[in-house]
Amino acid sequence: MRNERGGSYSLEHFRHLALGEVSSTNTECLTRARQGEASGLWITAERQTAGRGRRGRAWTSETGNLYASLLLIDPSPPELLSSLPLAVSLAVHGTLRRVLPATAEAVEIKWPNDVLIGRKKSCGILLEAEILPDGRRAVVCGIGINIRHRPETAPYGVTSLQEQGATSSAGEVFTHLFDEMIQILNIWDHGHGVAAVTRLWRSAACGIGTLIRVNLPARSLDGVFVGIDDDGLLILETDNRLHHIAAGDVFLLETE
């Protein structure tokens, strides 16, 4: 398992900067990347004033939740980068399983990287990439976990770790996330371990064999969620036809 220096990822390859209030931990990571920051920087914040989710959606960022972003520089060849969101979701999945009590509802992943507790959204994951002036690719893995707070209004079910009986603080949850991410990045192996990642992802997947709706930019498709292929693409069956989908919003029709 290789990193940029030719060995496996370990503790010394990562650094942690804890901040108070920021606009967004992803923004902070990208700013520092433009200034020459090396790969492996974690930034956490107590609160975000301009947190964001996928497709530019606002992300509620009150004190008491975890807001963390990891900066990776050239983490894989460009053609292998698309599997990184699956790997990040596995790190979050492992983190939640560590801190939740045995009485909590099931922890699952909804494609591609929504980590659910009892089929309710518990966190947000946003990956952003940018080509730096020197030609390197900066990739930021942003993770927000609902610990004490959750959105009051959402188009889907939401929950928090506290509601599920967890007592860990944001700092304690981050300690587990830090460790889980190292393990998963080593399995992912700069994209060369995608087969291992997809196997692990399938074991944690939510809704395989059930009806789902996939909202695409120009249309929506309803069908049976067959699973994911070896490249991490969603496989949807409609009228005996299989669609391999690279990006879209998934809704579980039986629960949402």
UniProtKB/TrEMBL annotation:
It holds the Pfam family BPL_LplA_LipB. It catalyses: biotin + L-lysyl-[protein] + ATP = N(6)-biotinyl-L-lysyl-[protein] + AMP + diphosphate + H(+). Keywords: ATP-binding, Biotin, Ligase, Nucleotide-binding. The keyword tRNA-binding does not apply. Signal peptide: none annotated. One of its GO terms (molecular function) is biotin--[biotin carboxyl-carrier protein] ligase activity. Residues 2-189 form the BPL/LPL catalytic domain. PANTHER family: BIOTIN PROTEIN LIGASE, BIOTIN--PROTEIN LIGASE. This is biotin--[biotin carboxyl-carrier protein] ligase. The lineage of its organism: Bacteria, Pseudomonadati, Pseudomonadota, Alphaproteobacteria, Hyphomicrobiales.
